[in-house]
Amino acid sequence: MAHAPPISVAAAVNSSTPATLSPSPSVTPSGPMENTPQNNECKMVEVRGAKLASFTVNGNELICLPQAFDLFLKHLVGGLHTVYTKLKRLEITPVVCNVEQVRVLRGLGAIQPGVNRCKLISRKDFEALYIDCTNAR
């Protein structure tokens, strides 16, 4: 079987193919984000007075979206589905974590133990989302 050429994280993230639990031909087994030591190094950063897990990918700091939702947005919106609807309307595309990043986030308690998928978002995009959620009330 011939393999497709490697694609960039941006290309994988901006693809029109929806994220699903089953692997797609354009996604490597480790997930759409490249599984490298640099991409998998997690640090805690302060966002709006709380510590959130983050990864630096291609020079961009990306924070854990479910953790940010839990800390800042769950009391403002109906649920995570509402957040994803808002992201789509705001034309913000979160980055899908690779398997190792998910493992690290579970180990830190940033996401629940049974979770096997997670998305990351830039601070700038989170601020736009937060403003949208607070103005929607």
Automatic annotation (TrEMBL):
Keywords: Nucleus. It is found in: Nucleus. GO terms for molecular function: DNA-binding transcription factor activity, RNA polymerase II-specific; RNA polymerase II cis-regulatory region sequence-specific DNA binding. Residues 29-135 form the SKI/SNO/DAC domain. One of its GO terms (cellular component) is nucleus. Residues 14-39 are annotated as: Disordered. It comes from the Eukaryota. Pfam families: Ski_Sno_DHD. Residues 15-32 have a biased composition (Low complexity). The keyword Nucleus applies. Belongs to the DACH/dachshund family. PANTHER family: DACHSHUND, DACHSHUND, ISOFORM B. This is SKI/SNO/DAC domain-containing protein. It comes from Cyprinus carpio.
